[in-house]
Amino acid sequence: MRASRRRLLFGFSYTIVSALLFFVLTLDANAQGIAGLPGSASDAALGRGVSDNKLGSVLFFNYYVSDALSSQVNTRINITNAHATQDIVVHVFFVDSSTCNIADAFICLTGNQTTTFLASDLDPNVAGYLVVIAVDSQGRPVSFNYLAGDELVVTPTGHRFGLAAMAAARRDGNFASPANSDGTTATMFFNGTQYDFLPYAMVLDSFPSQVSGVGAPLADTRLYAYSPLPDLATGGSAFSGTLFFLVHNDTENTFSGQLPLNCYLASDKQRITSVRTSPPINTIIPSGRTGWASFYANGSQRVVCNTSGATVTLANVPLMGATATKVGSFTGGQNLRIATTFNAQGLSGYSITVPLIPPSCGSSVDYPTNGSTLCP
After folding, report:
1. In this structure, are residues 368 and 224 in contact, taking their beta carbons and an 8 Å threshold?
2. Quick one: pLDDT at residue 5?
């Protein structure tokens, strides 16, 4: 009886293991995509994209704002070098959300150093986003996966929140990006080989009804969304696209809608109720209820695809951003969640080109160069 029982238990265990293995394989297959959303869900789930929970060589601060006429509207930005002994220079690009015009500066960080500044001191009266890039003494982007950052934001609409910087790690070893054939620029390739993938589809995982009612205070949920400029050397952007939304309520009904997107989601379109759905969002998510949304950007963008200066036109663009909500006495915000990365459906990735300007402050370690490509 005991031997027979052991055989039965072994058979039972084998059945469980087989079932679990099938379940895991099924999950892995299903993780290749999310219905209705383009891009790679598996790469996002496996951490192959940018993240606000790691160190990197490039930092994206998804929103900053300041107002010289208000002592309240401002952004406090922190950048940290987490390496104990190695100094680094970072090239900081301030991108204006209205015009895509760029202002830039260099900041030198010694080992274990952190720096803090106010947006009103370095780029007053502007709303937009920051790109912070580790560079060498020639201004070339380098592998330095020790950068971290965060920010505290108070907006003109009274939202108060903190955001961690989104970090992109360099993946090809200790290299610098070579100069392009023009000799004045270098290109970073966010293709999962040189740098992490950028996000494609994003998720606003929950937002309260924007309609007040008995026992349900008025809420105000904002989106700060943009597609990163592919050219930080000359600025400007001819990009004109659309944010496509799937809006879901808490009774599992789904509706679609759109918003225009140019350099950045315009300030008058940032409230979630600006998304045009039928019926309107305030009907889909009435007082006292909650909803969530997933969305991505449609529209073509031309990017540099190799170090010889060749370009390629991408059919769609990556998307980044944050969200903030006020409801009653509560206010807060977070980076949008990454549902998929920008590397599926024939898209090999994205590139961002930067000017080669030698930093005016202390030098950093120079590495041998290693290029990459997006070209077919």
Report:
1. no
2. 35
Question: Is 20 strand, coil or helix?
Answer: helix
DSSP 168-223: E-B-SSS-BPPBPTTSSEEEEEESSSSBPBPB-SEEEEEEE-SS-BTTB--EEEEE
How is residue 267 annotated by DSSP? G
pLDDT, tens digit (0-9, with 9 covering 90-100), for 123-168 = 999 999 999 999 999 999 999 999 999 999 999 999 999 999 999 9
- By residue count, the chain amounts to 376
Query: How many Cβ atoms are within 10 Å of 53's Cβ, its own excluded?
Result: 9
Token output for 119: 């947006």
Q: Which residues of 151-168 are buried (b: 16+ CB within 10 A; e: fewer)?
A: bebbbeeebebebbbbbb
pLDDT digits (tens, 9 = 90+) for 345-356: 566 899 999 999
Taking phi over 0 as left and psi of -120 to 50 as alpha, with beta for the rest, 263 belongs to alpha
> Which residue in 196, 199, 284, 209 sits closest to 247, CA to CA?
284
Order of strands, sheet of 219-226, starting from the edge strand that comes earlier in the sequence: 219-226, 320-327, 330-335
Query: Which tokens is 358 given?
Result: 């030698």
Cite the DSSP H helix spans in 89-143.
119-122
Report the candidate in 165, 170, 80, 106 with the shortest Cα–Cα distance to residue 130: 165
3-state secondary structure at position 268: helix
Quick check: 191 pLDDT over 80?
Answer: yes
pLDDT confidence band for 76 (50 / 70 / 90): very high
Beta bridge pairs of residue 353: 187, 231
* Residue keyed to tokens 């010694």: 110
